[in-house]
Design a protein that fits this description.
CATH architecture: Orthogonal Bundle
Order of helices and strands: HHHHH
CATH superfamily: Cytochrome c-like domain
CATH topology: Cytochrome Bc1 Complex, Chain D, domain 2
Number of domains: 1
Shape: globular
Strand content: under 5%
Largest sheet: none
CATH class: Mainly Alpha
Helix content: 55-70%
Bound molecules: heme C
Structural class: mainly alpha
Oligomer: single chain
Length: 125
């Protein structure tokens, strides 16, 4: 039952991220010579370089990367609503998680990366 809910939530989320990714690909191929800078801006490296500072240990009540319930609850509002609050910053979360250099698409990919990790984490006992 629970995993069914997670699946349903994950579908619009995945579609949203897919659209973001393909838009980004188009932009990247248009600006091919600057691609070197792009490699350390992938969702995984952004999360590991920055977001993990707070989202790893759950600092100031940041949703932990392995907290499936917290992320599922937050994601039920949709990726755009989630991203909007995080882009502006709220409570203990600085605007764009302190990475003002990220585009909206890059930032959303980082969120999607954490969300995917959270929903594939084992359920808490
Ligand atoms: C300095 C600590 C800190 C860093 C760094 C940080 N966050 Fe957060 N983040 C928080 C806290 C605290 C919250 C919880 C805010 C709340 O809802 O009370 C949060 C919440 C969020 C949320 C949920 C927002 C919502 O509306 O529920 C998202 C999405 C998010 N962060 C994404 C990111 C991403 C992506 C990065 C890296 C680019 C990042 N954060 C880096 C502290 C941080």
């Amino acid at each position: 039952m629970k995993s069914k809910i997670v699946m349903l939530l994950a579908i619009p989320f995945a579609i949203g991220a897919g659209a973001v990714q393909s838009a980004e690909k188009t932009a990247e191929s248009a600006a091919a010579p600057t691609a070197a800078a792009v490699s350390d801006r992938s969702a995984e490296s952004v999360v590991n370089a920055k977001c993990i500072e707070c989202h790893g240990p759950g600092k100031k009540h940041a949703p932990r990367i392995d907290d499936r319930e917290d992320w599922t609850k937050r994601a039920s509002r949709g990726l755009d609503a989630l991203a909007l609050g995080a882009i502006r910053g709220h409570h203990g979360m600085p605007a764009r998680g302190g990475r003002a250099d990220l585009t909206d698409a890059e930032f959303k990919n980082a969120i999607f990366y954490m969300f995917t990790k959270a929903v594939s984490a084992p359920t808490k006992k």
